[in-house]
Design brief:
With about 190 residues, the chain is α+β, with helices and mostly antiparallel strands. It contains four helices and ten strands; from the N terminus they run H-E-H-E-E-E-E-E-H-E-E-E-H-E. It has helices spanning about 1-20, 45, 120, 165-175, and strands at about 25-30, 50-55, 65-75, 80-85, 90-105, 105-110, 125-130, 135-145, 150-155, 185. The protein has an eight-stranded antiparallel barrel with strand order 2-3-4-5-6-7-8-9.
Length: about 190
């Protein structure tokens, strides 16, 4: 039983790593939209643990519950990123460590060196808005062809079970940027 769970964990981690280079499952025609990021982004205030409250479906989180992101500011100004989740199919925790650099204000580039492909060279991580203590809305867009792009959107919260007002505030940011709220899927944060 332990051996089979270990094999399942290795398979899950391998799949997690292999498909993380796919930016999203939400494919949209046209160019990436113009979005507005928060002015005067305070990276220090942003650090710490965030719970994933909702997101656009992404391949690398298939079966993921209890998803968190923990950010630590390093002395060189880069950010250590540890993304964790529990896989509901094999009931095992999975985590991956990467790093991020601020490219321009609230536009970061995140990479996971252990992963081949785009995740190794970097993916966009744009903080559209945050109040630093309750919510953050993060967007990533990748041009997949000359006629289409893929989008990822996350609502991150400091509380495992955020208030209704926190979610309303985050949804206002999404609407302001003319992004779809219809594609959001709530992330289960129970039995973690």
């Amino acid at each position: 039983m332990i051996a089979s769970k270990s094999i399942l964990a290795l398979i899950a981690i391998g799949l997690f790593g292999l498909v993380i280079s796919c930016d999203a499952q939400i494919k949209v025609e046209g160019a990436c939209p113009n979005v507005t990021v928060i002015p005067n982004f305070n990276a220090t205030a942003y650090m710490g643990l965030w719970y994933e409250s909702a997101k656009y479906p992404v391949i690398f989180e298939t079966g993921g519950i209890c998803v968190t992101a923990n950010y630590t500011l390093l002395q060189d100004g880069s950010v250590e990123v540890i993304n964790s989740q529990k896989n509901k199919y094999i009931h095992l925790p999975i985590s991956i460590k990467g790093n991020a650099v601020v490219v321009d204000n609230a536009k970061l580039l995140v990479n996971f060196p252990s992963i081949p492909g785009p995740a190794k060279t970097g993916s966009n991580y744009w903080v559209l808005d945050t109040d630093y203590v309750n919510y953050s809305v993060v967007f990533s867009c990748s041009q997949s062809s000359s006629t289409s792009h893929t989008e990822v959107l996350w609502i991150l919260t400091r509380a495992k079970n955020p208030s209704v007002q926190t979610i309303i505030d985050a949804v206002k940011v999404i609407s302001k940027n003319k992004l779809s709220v219809d594609n959001l899927k709530v992330t289960k944060q129970e039995n973690c």
